Amino acid sequence: FINASFLGELLIHFKKYGWELINASDAFTDEIYSSQPQIIPAGESLVWALAKETGKYESMLRYPGEDSEYEEMPLNEFLKTYYR
After folding, report:
1. Range of the domain at 46
2. Could you give the CA distance from residue 37 to residue 51 in angstroms, rounded to a whole number?
């Protein structure tokens, strides 16, 4: 629900700042998608895994990467303000 609510605004914002939007089939031809990071734990996003593999972001990476224990409260606070 929340992603669908803001997708249009997000795309307009990206275009405004010079981003070029392309379709998924073109995007997936990028070489990053053939990457296979050798990290444990596995199962997070490709970007998360690549960041972990560098060893530079250990203090910033959360595991699990997306989880209600640290996402739910800020999201609820945001929704209270946005949907008044």
Report:
1. 2-82
2. 9
Q: Concatenate the DSSP letters of all residues of 10-28 into one string.
A: HHHHHHHTTPPP--HHHHT
Total count of domains within the chain:
1
Output the pTM of the full model.
0.58
How far separated are the first and last CA of the chain, in Å rounded?
A: 17
CB-CB contact of 64 with 48 (8 Å) = no
Q: How far apart (Å, rounded) are the C-alpha atoms in residues 53 and 69? A: 24
Task: Express each pLDDT in 39-81 by its tens digit.
Answer: 887 788 898 999 999 999 989 888 877 777 778 888 888 888 8
Using only C-alpha atoms, what is the Rg of the chain?
16
